[in-house]
Design goal:
Blueprint lengths: L6 E10 L4 E6 L4 E6 L15 E7 L2 E10 L4
Parallel strand pairs: 3-5
Antiparallel strand pairs: 1-2, 1-4, 2-3, 4-5
Length: 74
């Protein structure tokens, strides 16, 4: 998914599933699946329901994406 054609959107974690997969609600109301990269899987315990995250999407498949960044709550 990395490359010039990939783009990023913001969303909120709605539910957690098995194997570091999350249901993410985007700001436009759509829901999609988001997964963590293999390198980030140890960080899965820090991602909780209600967290705001950035999702990297491929234009080929808009139904799932990669969670690349968790916004810290202040």
């Amino acid at each position: 998914m990395s490359g010039k054609s990939a783009f990023c959107v913001e969303g909120k974690i709605v539910a957690t599933l098995d194997n570091s997969v999350f249901v993410v609600s985007l700001t436009n109301g759509h829901q999609m699946l988001g997964h963590l990269a293999r390198v980030q899987k140890p960080l899965a315990k820090h991602v909780k329901v209600g967290d705001v995250v950035t999702i990297q999407l491929s234009p080929c498949d808009l139904s799932q994406g990669r969670v690349i960044l968790k916004e810290d709550k202040l």
